[in-house]
């Protein structure tokens, strides 16, 4: 009877089943692959582990699938439990391929992106729960389960059956009859919280709790902490409504980026940093969460910040580290424990130094956000600090307003304060006379606002001359021209409408950077029958600043070498959007040796002999050293009025004097010459793409004046125009007819190299560069561009072909010529990532020459 009773008990209470799975067998790799693409956590992903099988009938009283989640790479399924909770199942492995652009799917790049999922540890989220519990961070503990092939899955069965993943309570917005998470009064997403604060200005985030969570993020190298990785729980504490953070989806903790390719990726993607003994710079370690950091952490004082830091460090004991890591699956422990523990202990010791850098980073550029109500902000400048007080509504029976936000910012740390007023009729007062202080920028937004500036930052003329001059350190921007401004000596006010993004993602985490610095590479690659192989490049440095779109400044230094002239070019270019409003100011310096290496004489019917060309009969040595300043006035979308001043020093040598025959000014230009050029013009650019346009139009016209200065004999000028049109072919995908018409007129006593030229890659493609020279030129081109389809290379590329015919001529005073030079040919191109990168090859035929050209764009 006893044996029968035992059997009955076991049958009445089914025992938990286990199964053995491999989290990601596709991440196995040999030595060479690991050298290039990293060891990462491959061995952990490829190790079999035993995990329990989820019984949908009994877990939480029974689980019923409701909907798929919105994760980009992780397969997510939401369940409703009989216990009243909402549960979320997330796959251990990730599947980025469906989220990639069509040009990348099913390519080597997609394979690389999938392979790099092994940068993360598959079980990382499981071991974080004890840490967060000890730190008082609200969290939903996940556990690893195997989701079996069960009919209960219904319509989701095919996608989610036999899948390993993590199951956890989903802290969702409270539904009627639901069970509140962590006894919260309400749960909302980051998006809803930010918009809520526009109306509910009396509510606020528990900044100390958020800092605790963010320090822990960095401690475990959980870099993927954007706004979608948080929910928020509301509590009423001492009569105040306070929101506490709930971090979720902790997949990226302990991420590793060893190996050549992952390491190179960390140089491009700022938030990708290796889980090592040392912390990366605070800017990059907190990159993904920077927008929420700016909103919620700036109000913490230094003492409060340090107090939170000390609290976090005191909790991260060796015992807690051991206990937390013990939650790894047994099979993972030999591959994970020692390495992670050693790093965590060292990172804990270095956390105070990182926290100090983090505080300075958050308080260097400060963002303060007001509401859509009528807000009042008092700003007081002192010799060492700036005190910002955000005031709410008046207290009952008093003229005193409620203090919603107050912080004293240390001038040694804070250089830039940005206050966002949003809607409402707001008032801002700035007081105090100081020697120096941070730049304060007030964004008035909507509503009729009032700006009162009675402060003074004394400053010096040009920032260094010993002449007193008030600095323009108080800058007001507003959408409403009727807003009132009481100017001080350092006030700048500008009515500049800044449209509020309608997309919540763009509103809270805009892609448009307004601070920091970016880097890039400016490659040079060109292959032609004229200059041979031309290759080189240089770095690009891009600086971002407030309201400067798309950037504040852009700088590059480029060097290139060409094999046929056997010479170098050096170019420095810099562009600034902050010197003048609605304008780009540029400064350039260059040494050009590659361009203009042959001269064929003056006129529309000059002779050409290929044997003479090969013997370098037409060879010219021209070296140009120039400095240039320009201003582009942005009149409208794609419309600008440009001005430029350039000082050039020419060193020219023409060995064959007979080439000057027929020139109106003889050999003028042979030798050394210094020339000042003043230019202006307009550009209308309505093309859909600059490197391979298929629709739109482009118009440029302008002129240059070269005065009689230095050893320039007499003043001379030129005027140019360039018209282009692109007409889509309706019955052919991504195909178009392209037309171009242009010309130039040169007048005055000009040096021979300043004539109007035709030939080469700039216009008549089947002739050598600068083949024809005259006092004026005209040319026209008709081209058809047809996309044939796509091919799979490293990524998918669109393949196209084009055919062209073009003609042109130059005009010379006293020459009677009716010849129009005909050039025709065609080519092919590869277009990558929706025409973000173009590779094009061209061949042109004429009665003189067959010219080829390979470059990174089409001619026009």
Please give a structural write-up.
This protein has 860 residues and is an alpha+beta fold. The protein folds into three domains: 2-362, no CATH class; 370-501, no CATH class; 517-855, membrane protein fhac: a member of the omp85/tpsb transporter family (Porin), CATH 2.40.160. The protein has 17 helices and 44 strands. Strands 27-28-29-30-31-32-33-34-35-36-37-40-41-42-43-44 form a 16-stranded antiparallel β-barrel. A hairpin with a 4-residue loop joins β42 (821-832) and β43. It is globular and about 100 Å long. The chain starts with a helix and ends in a 5-residue tail after the last strand.
Structural features:
single chain; 860 residues; alpha+beta; Porin; 3 domains; 17 helices; 44 strands; 39% strand; disordered N terminus
Give the distance, in angstroms, between the N- and C-terminal Cα atoms.
94 Å
The secondary-structure class comes to alpha+beta
Secondary structure tally: strands? 44
In order across it, which strands form the biggest sheet? 27-28-29-30-31-32-33-34-35-36-37-40-41-42-43-44
Shape: globular
Helix count, per DSSP? 17
Low-confidence stretches: 1-14
- The total tally of domains equals 3
- The radius of gyration is 34 Å
Largest sheet: 16 strands, antiparallel, barrel
Helicity, in percent?
Answer: 10-25%
Mean pLDDT: 92
Strand content: 35-45%
């Amino acid at each position: 009877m006893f044996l029968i009773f035992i059997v009955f008990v076991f049958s009445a209470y089914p025992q938990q089943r286990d199964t053995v799975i491999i989290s990601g067998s596709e991440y196995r790799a040999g030595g060479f692959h690991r050298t290039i693409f990293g060891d990462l956590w491959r061995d952990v992903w490829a190790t079999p582990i035993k995990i329990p099988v989820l019984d949908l009938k009994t877990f939480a009283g029974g689980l019923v699938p409701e909907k798929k989640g919105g994760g980009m790479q992780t397969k997510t399924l939401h369940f409703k439990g009989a216990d009243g909770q909402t549960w979320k199942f997330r796959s251990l492995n990730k599947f980025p391929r469906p989220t990639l652009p069509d040009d990348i799917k099913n390519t080597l790049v997609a394979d690389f992106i999938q392979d790099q999922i092994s940068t993360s540890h598959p079980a990382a989220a499981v071991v974080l729960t004890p840490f967060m519990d000890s730190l008082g961070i609200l969290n939903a503990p996940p556990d690893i389960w195997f989701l079996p092939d069960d009919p209960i899955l219904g319509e989701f069965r095919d996608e989610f059956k036999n899948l390993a993943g993590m199951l956890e309570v989903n802290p969702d917005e409270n539904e009627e009859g639901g069970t509140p998470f962590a006894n919260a009064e309400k749960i909302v997403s980051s998006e809803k919280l930010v918009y809520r604060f526009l109306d509910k200005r009396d509510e606020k985030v528990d900044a100390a709790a958020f800092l605790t969570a963010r320090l822990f993020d960095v401690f475990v190298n959980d870099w993927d902490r954007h706004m979608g990785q948080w929910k928020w729980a509301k509590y009423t504490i001492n009569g105040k409504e306070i929101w506490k953070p709930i971090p979720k989806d902790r997949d990226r903790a302990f991420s590793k980026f060893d190996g050549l390719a992952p390491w190179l990726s960390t140089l491009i993607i700022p938030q990708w940093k290796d889980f090592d003994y040392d912390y990366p710079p605070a800017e990059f370690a907190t990159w993904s969460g920077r927008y929420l950091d700016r909103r919620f952490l700036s109000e913490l004082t230094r003492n409060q910040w340090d107090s939170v830091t000390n609290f976090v460090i005191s909790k991260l004991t060796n015992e807690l580290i051991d206990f937390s890591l013990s939650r790894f699956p047994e099979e993972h422990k030999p591959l994970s424990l020692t390495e992670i523990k050693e790093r965590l202990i060292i990172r804990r010791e270095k956390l105070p130094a990182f926290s100090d850098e983090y505080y300075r980073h958050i308080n260097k550029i400060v963002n303060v956000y007001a509401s859509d109500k009528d807000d009042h902000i008092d700003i007081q400048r002192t010799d060492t600090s700036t005190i910002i007080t955000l005031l709410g509504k008046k207290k009952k029976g008093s003229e005193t307003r409620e203090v919603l936000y107050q912080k004293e910012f240390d001038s040694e740390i804070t250089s830039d304060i940005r206050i966002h007023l949003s809607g409402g009729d707001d008032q801002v007062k700035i007081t105090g006379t100081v020697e120096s202080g941070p730049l304060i920028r007030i964004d008035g937004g909507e509503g009729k606002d009032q700006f009162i500036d009675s402060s003074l930052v004394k400053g010096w003329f040009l920032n260094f001359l010993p002449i007193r001059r008030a600095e323009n350190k108080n800058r007001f921007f507003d959408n409403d021209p009727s807003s009132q401004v009481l100017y001080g000596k350092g006030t700048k006010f500008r009515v500049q409408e800044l449209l509020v993004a309608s997309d919540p993602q763009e509103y809270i985490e805009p892609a448009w950077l307004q601070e920091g610095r970016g880097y890039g590479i400016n490659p040079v690659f060109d292959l032609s029958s004229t200059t041979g192989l031309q290759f080189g490049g240089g770095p690009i440095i891009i600086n971002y600043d407030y309201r400067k779109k798309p950037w504040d400044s852009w700088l590059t230094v480029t060097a290139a070498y060409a094999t046929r002239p056997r010479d170098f070019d050096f170019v420095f270019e810099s562009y600034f959007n902050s010197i003048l409003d609605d304008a780009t100011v540029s400064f350039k310096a260059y040494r050009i040796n590659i361009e203009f290496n042959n001269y064929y004489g003056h006129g529309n019917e000059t002779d050409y002999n290929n044997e003479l060309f090969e013997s370098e009969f037409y060879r010219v040595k021209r070296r140009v050293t120039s400095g240039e300043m320009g201003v582009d006035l942005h009149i409208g979308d794609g419309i600008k009025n440009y001005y430029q001043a350039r000082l050039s020093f020419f060193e020219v040598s023409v060995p064959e004097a007979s080439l000057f025959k027929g020139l109106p000014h003889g050999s003028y230009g042979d030798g050394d010459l210094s020339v000042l050029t003043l230019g202006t013009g307009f550009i209308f650019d309505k093309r859909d793409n600059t490197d391979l346009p298929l629709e739109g139009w482009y118009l440029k016209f302008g002129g240059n004046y070269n005065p009689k200065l230095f050893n320039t004999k007499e003043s001379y000028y030129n005027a140019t125009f360039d018209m282009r049109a692109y007409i889509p072919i309706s019955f052919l995908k991504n195909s178009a007819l392209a037309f171009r018409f242009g010309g130039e007129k040169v007048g005055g006593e000009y040096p021979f190299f300043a004539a109007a030229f035709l030939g080469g890659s700039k216009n008549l493609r089947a002739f050598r560069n600068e083949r024809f020279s005259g006092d004026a030129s005209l040319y026209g081109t008709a081209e058809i561009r047809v996309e044939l389809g796509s091919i799979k290379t490293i990524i998918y590329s669109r393949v196209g072909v084009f055919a062209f015919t073009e003609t042109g001529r130059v005009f010379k005073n006293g020459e009677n010529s009716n010849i129009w030079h005909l050039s025709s040919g065609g080519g092919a191109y590869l277009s990558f990532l929706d025409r973000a990168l173009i590779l094009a090859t061209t061949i042109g035929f004429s009665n003189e020459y067959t010219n080829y050209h390979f470059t990174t764009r089409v001619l026009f």
